[in-house]
Amino acid sequence: MSTALTTAAPALTVAAWRDYDPQACALPGMHLGDIELTGPIGEESDRLWEAGTRRVRLRETVDLTGLDAPGAAERAVRLLSLVRDLTARAVLVEWKLRMDPAAPDATWRDLSHLQPPQSLEGTGDASGDLRQWREGHYLCKCLWRQGPGFVQIRDRRWGDLRRFTVEEPEYRRAIETLSYGSPTASVPAAVLADFLEERLMLRVGELGWWMPYRVNRWIQEAMTI
After folding, report:
1. Contact at 8 Å (CB) between 13 and 38?
2. Is the previous residue joined to 10 through a cis bond, with omega within 30 degrees of 0?
3. Contact 63, 204 (CB under 8 A)
4. At 64, phi and psi to the nearest 5?
5. pLDDT for residue 154 is more than 70
6. Fewer CB near the terminus (10 Å): N or C of the chain?
């Protein structure tokens, strides 16, 4: 049985619209209102998409500081998972990110495959870093896909293509476990070390979170990506 975080709490509230364009969103019937998300994020992302959501605004900042506080890491992972899953569907996500400048192994580039945030705090040059993020972002920058008996990961966050094919069962199980956050102790130490070395997993307090998204919308033929 997976030890990943699957509980309904904490609830998140987002504003949702049926279109990407702010002018179109101002038209009658385009605003879907404030939606409370209480279920597993994978299911909630599907529910938003099926309801016609194409633009989402998070009501709170994704805060990667103070993660020792009760529930802080779980909440941060839940928010990051929502941003990741909606990015995979090419939904416009309006969100804010606060990083921990004291975290030595964390960088904004780790998250640069996600929809760029509206504001960024806690990096060496927040305004410059955010500008680079926005200018360099595109869909399918860091993704994984499931094949028959293997998982393939394609990562372009660092400028070149880094491709990994994972066939070992313990690695595939770890990806499933970490997809929506799980204590790092739930993953075999060797697998954890490999994921951290390749910067495919983010430490969020005592939790590990799988960063690549499983793409739902290709921007061009899959063989090209």
Report:
1. no
2. yes
3. no
4. -100, 20
5. yes
6. N
